[in-house]
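HOLO CASE FILE
Compound: pyridoxal-5'-phosphate
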Amino acid sequence: MKTESEIRKEILDLVHELYRIREQNKKFIPGKTRIHYSGRVFDEKEMKAAVDSVLDFWLTLGKRGREFIKDFTEYMGMKYGVVTNSGSSANLLALSALCSKNIRKPLRMGDEVITTALTFPTTLNPILQNGLTPVFVDVEEGTYNIDTEMIERAISQKTRAIFFAHTLGNPADMDKIMDIAGKYNLYVIEDTCDALDSRFKGKLCGTFGDMSTFSFYAAHHITMGEGGAVLTNNYELYKQVLSIRDWGRACFCQTGEENPSGACGHRFDYKFEGLPEGYDHKYVYSNVGYNLKPLDIQCAMGIEQLKKLPSFTERRKHNFNHLYNLFKKYESKFILPRWLKEAEPSWFALPLTIREDAGFTRKEFIAYLESKLIETRMLFAGNILKHPAYKNINCRIEGELNNTNAILERAFFIGVYPGLTEEMLDYMSSAVDEFMNLR
Ligand SMILES: Cc1ncc(COP(=O)(O)O)c(C=O)c1O
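Model generated. Tokens follow.
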């Protein structure tokens, strides 16, 4: 009879073989194969790691979750990390932790958070979900990032935090943001979901503010299918993020710990006012929480993906440069992306805004690209305040949102993800040249 480890090896060898066969059959046919704006880039290692984890059948968050978050936190050079089931959950946790009564200076209902209306919805939603008031400022043309000149103007007695994204991987001006935050004593949360491995002055995005959030959805810089993380150097905030992720419980031992008395050895040693002496700390609730944990299987893939991040980043930069140079020829028609001289973006995608006098519309250009099977996407919500769900939200707008509205009307993005090959880039270039030559 075969041993368990022999069976496991056979299964994993077959997975490897399956991957090899699929790879052999992969072929790019110009005009026939769809060019995605993003996608999973993986090899047999992720497939084997996922299957290996399934074979364990632990399923819920466990040793691979602990390994992933340790590796990720170390890669980022941060002290504390919490893995989540999505980037949206990471954002919700970060904002909810800031509102926890267990921290020294919690945000309270009606407090203001400065953000942008050019946003992914779940960057904004946690502000609303926690009863806080978003204060919208415009973004800059070309960088698509929060206009730091407007932040200071937007500050009122009630302002407590700045929550912004490094748009599409383009680092925001962290010198200015951190200066303003220091001056007015504001919390800073960096939505780094699209900016993993981007740097500002050589320092990784997501390491400047009080907390940062990440997404490991299939489209992002690394993936575990669905997934996310919150990072911080603040132990008080870390404990709240962990608690709120895990139903709000007071216990901050990691899930899956074997010791019956918890990893801390004190599971039955606490006394809380109103609760019986020694009430199981796992069932004491110190926050109004959720359950936003991923599965261990997801983390198994994340461990392998993280090892590939440096090569992914290199490829993203290469692809971005290729497509940037293509559109540079047509600068009179497109507003090209801009980045700060201190910034080293690992682009999520290449954003473009069609100039008002280009002689063609976004709709026409996108329809053309899509007809050539080149995928495009809108810059998330454009101006989220124009969307049905957000028409009557309680908010304040500082100044005009002119650039945000221009993005709503005329911007879009195309992919630069590591799965784009030279053949695909060449095909994209000739398709764009063909459209422009017809003008
Ligand atoms: C800037 C930004 N924040 C948050 C999210 C949400 O991440 P997820 O899809 O993992 O929930 C996204 C999604 O792509 C995003 O682009």
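CASE NOTES: The chain has a mean pLDDT of 97. Residues 86-88, 91, 120, 122-123, 165, 191, 193-194, 215, 217, 228 surround pyridoxal-5'-phosphate (CB under 6 Å).
CLOSED: yes
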